[in-house]
Amino acid sequence: MKVKLFSLFVVLALAFAGFSPSNVQAQAYTTTFTTSVTYQNVGTVATTSLQVLFYATPSTTTPTTVTLTNLAAGASSSLYIGSLTQAEVPTGFQGSAVMQSDQPLLATLVQVPQGSATVFVRPLSNGFSDGGDTALIATVLKNTYGAHTKFSIQNIDSQLNNVDIKFYDTSATLVHTIAQAIESGASYYVDAATVAALGASFNGSVVATATRADASAGKIVGSAMELDITGTGAKAFESVATGATTLYMPSALCNVYGGQNTSYAVQNTSLTTATDVTVTYSPGGLAVTKNIGAGAKASFPACDTVAAGFVGSATVTSTTTPVIAMGKVYGAGLSTAFLGAPNGDANIALPYVRWAPDADYTSGSRQRTYIAIQNVGAAEIPAGSITITYTDSFGHTGTHVYASALPVGSKFSSNASNAGLTEFGYSGSNYGGGATITCAVAGCQLMAIARVQTYVSASSTAAEDYNAMPIP
Length: 472
Hints:
There is one protein chain. The protein folds into four domains: 2-126, Sandwich (Hypothetical Protein Tm1070, Chain: A), CATH 2.60.290.11; 134-238, TM1070-like (Hypothetical Protein Tm1070, Chain: A, Sandwich); 246-339, Hypothetical Protein Tm1070, Chain: A (Sandwich), CATH 2.60.290; 347-470, Hypothetical Protein Tm1070, Chain: A. Helix content is 1%, strand content 50%. It contains one helix and 35 strands. The strands form nine sheets. The chain has a five-stranded antiparallel β-sheet, with no helix packed on it. A four-stranded antiparallel β-sheet has the order 1-6-3-4, with no helix packed on it. A four-stranded antiparallel β-sheet has the order 5-2-7-8, with no helix packed on it. Strand 30 and strand 31 (430-431) form a beta hairpin. It starts with a strand and ends with a strand. Mean pLDDT is 90; it is low at 5-24.
């Protein structure tokens, strides 16, 4: 099977050979990033064929192929794009990739900042196994909230697609359209900061649609990075092909843990009909409703509805049309993004999980991953039914069985130390580790988000979130 990875934001570290990172005070938008692809074999046996195909431009028809070492069942590994040769991926590459394997794979992309002494966060987003003729990007900014958005649209169809990229503001007005032909496997990048038609500033969303030459539906996916203009925050998230009238958000915060907060960007997927959207917070049941015009988005900051100190989750419901939702966590040094999900699954996985020993973590050289797991099903899950299995490529394995019952809508946290591990996902200069989450109860529905955290100081961390993916 093929696992499509959306476009990679790649500028190879090789370009910085003459610079000292400790002297560079770049902020997020001017920082360059090199991608590391962390991938997990969620099949039952080892792979016997594993390759990545790189596409450099929207018109690339012959990709560069890199063969990877085969991967055991359940194991994770990583490919740092900066370690490839110039012949494989040249300096300055900004394109897309497709991963091919004879076993089902899941993949998460890690954007590693290069040459900055101030930007520590590593934006995270997931690869795709499929797409649709529409790619919805819930939030796109130009010089708004101190940030610019860069995004890309990848053609995962078998033939050339003609793609219309439409920008809608928060008043549901179509502001601008870009028409672009994209070859199979290739991608097209947009930096909102450089799109003059968006004016001096823009706050809205994007709807991209793809058609073939015969006017039949194409197939695309998208990804985005939201980058602070003068600050150090950076986050990444995926597009969504379709929306839903109910979405679950595993994290909802108001002024906790030193000032952490959440806000949800909710986009109406209909281009013709407005809808009323309600966000309901749990525990407590406090709710807020806003009307969202066709193609538009609205923001739902948690602290507008719940009191300081709130820790919980939320449910997003739409009365008329399907919507998509993206959660942001900010404050106390955090800059994270995750997607709301319409349902859960009994078996989910996270390809990128790390747990650094104390000395390595507080030095800032290695990371720790915290997983929030939510019951989004219709019934309470009995105690002992949920198991988190941690497996890396270096012999570190362990399990965490959640010992309590998990009521509907509730969540709990896990990390590798709960599985008895003091180090996970590392071995010298090599990296690779993931987790699977399984539920033994019929009809069980779980969703999870992982927060990968980097120590900055005793009072500050940098972190990014990504969503767990269903195991095929």
